[in-house]
From TrEMBL:
Its main location: membrane. It catalyses: a quinol + 2 Fe(III)-[cytochrome c](out) = a quinone + 2 Fe(II)-[cytochrome c](out) + 2 H(+)(out). This is Cytochrome bc1 complex cytochrome c subunit. Its EC number is 7.1.1.8. The lineage of its organism: Bacteria, Bacillati, Actinomycetota, Actinomycetes, Kitasatosporales. Residues 1-30 form the signal peptide. It comes from Streptomyces cyaneogriseus subsp. noncyanogenus. It is found in: Cell membrane.
Length: 269
């Protein structure tokens, strides 16, 4: 009996009990805490959708339908995703002031919180591209040279070689990309607004989009503004040199012909 009592009062027994208690506490926290967080996120998302629906009913339903199904005045929003809403409303294109060949960019009338709520509601109508994170469009890890190649191959036909924009047919145009938020450029490539085709990840990968945005930032950033000179839309040194050669040399030839003609006329008289 004395030996049994000694074993029960072993100095390590208290430590073992403490460790077991800590393990149980940690297990219970791990089991219930994630569920609480997930439930909180779900509640917040539900509230955002409800608020977004209220905003939609006031500012969007007249053109896009009460349930986003579309009308003769506006396309369906089912499946366009949150990225399309963030781009269209964030750039002020929506709500549109008036119908036309193309809806121009203008000052937006919603706060970012309201835009997020509208995006949450429209996303609930059908799966679509999500709003990108800063890691997706930020400059970290981007290849500017690769972005230039990709931009000239896929975008320059409409937006010009440095994103200055250009005219299209029937009153439409490719807008300038100078001063546009990188997030909105990414979203435009994802969703293909108005006359622009979409470039999903299967066509242009996430890294490709990041590279293109880095290229546009490089050619339209503060450093490019300090170079001076007439850039002729940023077409490039070959085209600009040809312009100078033709018009500069042509002007000199014209002056030379005029001087020669005046000299010959003076000699005759």
């Amino acid at each position: 009996m004395k030996k049994l009592s000694a074993r029960r009062r072993h100095p390590l027994a208290a430590l073992v009990v403490l460790l077991l208690a800590l393990a149980c506490t940690g297990g219970l926290y791990a089991a219930f805490a994630p569920a609480d967080k997930a439930q909180a996120d779900e509640t917040a998302q539900s509230l955002a959708i409800d608020e977004g629906k209220k905003l939609y009913s006031v500012g969007c339903a007249s053109c896009h339908g009460t349930d986003g199904q579309g009308t003769t005045d506006g396309p369906s929003l089912v499946g366009v995703g949150a990225a399309a809403v963030d781009f269209q409303v964030g750039t002020g294109r929506m709500p549109a002031q008036q119908p036309g060949a193309q809806v121009p960019r203008k000052k937006n009338i919603y706060s970012q919180a309201e835009i997020d709520q509208l995006a949450a509601y429209v996303a609930s109508l059908g799966a679509g591209p999500t709003v990108p994170t800063k890691e997706q469009y930020g400059p970290e890890g981007a290849d500017i040279a690769k972005g230039g190649d990709l931009f000239r191959t896929n975008c320059a036909q409409c937006h010009n070689f440095t994103g200055k924009g250009g005219a299209l047919t029937h009153g439409k145009y490719a807008p300038t990309l100078e001063g546009v938020d990188p997030k909105h450029i990414y979203e435009a490539m994802e969703t293909g607004p108005q006359n622009m085709p979409s470039f999903p990840d299967g066509t242009l990968s996430e890294q490709n989009k990041k590279d293109i945005i880095a290229y546009l930032n490089a050619v339209n950033g503060e450093e490019s503004e300090s170079r001076g000179g007439l850039e002729l839309g940023g077409i490039g040194p070959v085209a600009e040199g040809l312009f100078g050669w033709i018009f500069g040399l042509g002007t000199l030839i014209a002056i030379a012909v005029w001087v020669a003609a005046r000299t010959a006329k003076a000699k005759k008289s």
